[in-house]
Amino acid sequence: MFEKISEQASRLVSLTSKSHVPSKTKVVVITSGKGGVGKSTITSNIAYILSQKNKKIAVLDADIGLANLQVMFNLKPKKTFFDYVQGTCEIEDILLKTSYHNITLIAGKSGFQYSKINNSMHFTRLVEDIVALDKYDILLIDTGAGLNEQVQEFLELTNNILAITTTDPSALTDAYALMKMMSLRKDKLMLCFNFTGKYEVGASITKSLKSLALKNKLNSKFMIQYVGNISKMDSISTTGRLRKLFTKEFKGDIVSSQLNQIVENLMRNMK
């Protein structure tokens, strides 16, 4: 299934890129195999850190049916990207200014069933249209959990993929499933451990995952790049409840320092 989506997306990207002016916008997909690992919180705070580096950031909430980034950015969107996909509004209508300098949100819609547009590559065209605007330095795409067809479509659009996981066995099992799938078409996967107190713990588990991949004869050229860990801190849940970003409200906390380092590693590895 991933190969089918990959071929469709590659053909569409090839066709659209010929008609679009070259864009400065780099696309980064932030994903996870398992839900509940803090992916959306990390995405919104990565956007803030990048914005403080004078980068213009667009954040696409691609968690189909369970969108919640409007909560993180304390917005009540009148239009979502689904309205644009349906053709009922212009792309400018879904570019929502946040209260944070240099950050624009493209909101999703919670509790909505997208069955009518399955396998139609609408999401690929949406991303291409945002990139073609040439307004942003980086487009962050926050996918849903799991490896469904919608998630796979977003994963195919870039080589800049950051997977969020934890040390929970079920999360690691899902992370390895993501690795197996990505190794078929991609050359690397960046890995971040959330709710993990020590950097060395994530580094050790990443090494074990690499060994498992070699043992199971995954693509030997496929690289897993460990970019860092984030500790579990009360400041994260506190700011989340208040609809604020912990990297702004608690700049001196260790978790903010850890995420800043992750962003540095992300930018270093970005193509």
Description:
With 271 residues, the chain is of the alpha/beta class. It has a single domain, classed as P-loop containing nucleotide triphosphate hydrolases (Rossmann fold, 3-Layer(aba) Sandwich). Helices cover 44% and strands 17% of the residues. The protein has helices spanning 2-19, 39-52, 69-72, 81-86, 122-132, 149-155, 169-182, 199-215, 234-241, 246-249, 254-269; strands at residues 26-32, 57-62, 96-97, 103-106, 138-145, 161-165, 188-194, 223-230. It has an eight-stranded mixed sheet, sandwiched between helices. Helix 7 links the parallel strand 6 (161-165) and strand 7. The longest helix has 18 residues, at 2-19. The protein is globular, with a radius of gyration of 18 Å. Mean pLDDT is 90; it is low at 14-19.
Sequence-ordered SSE layout with sheet pairings:
Layout: H1 2-19, E1 26-32, H2 39-52, E2 57-62, H3 69-72, H4 81-86, E3 96-97, E4 103-106, H5 122-132, E5 138-145, H6 149-155, E6 161-165, H7 169-182, E7 188-194, H8 199-215, E8 223-230, H9 234-241, H10 246-249, H11 254-269
Parallel strand pairs: 1-5, 1-6, 2-4, 2-5, 6-7, 7-8
Antiparallel strand pairs: 3-4
Please summarize what this structure is.
With 271 residues, the chain is α/β, with parallel strands linked by helices.
What descriptors fit this protein?
271 residues; alpha/beta; Rossmann fold; eight-stranded mixed beta sheet; 11 helices; 8 strands; globular
Give helix and strand order, one letter per element, not per position.
HEHEHHEEHEHEHEHEHHH
Category from helices, strands and their pairing: alpha/beta
CATH architecture: 3-Layer(aba) Sandwich
Distance from first to last alpha carbon:
26 Å
Mean pLDDT: 90
Rg value: 18 Å
Proportion in helices: 40-55%
Number of DSSP strands? Answer: 8
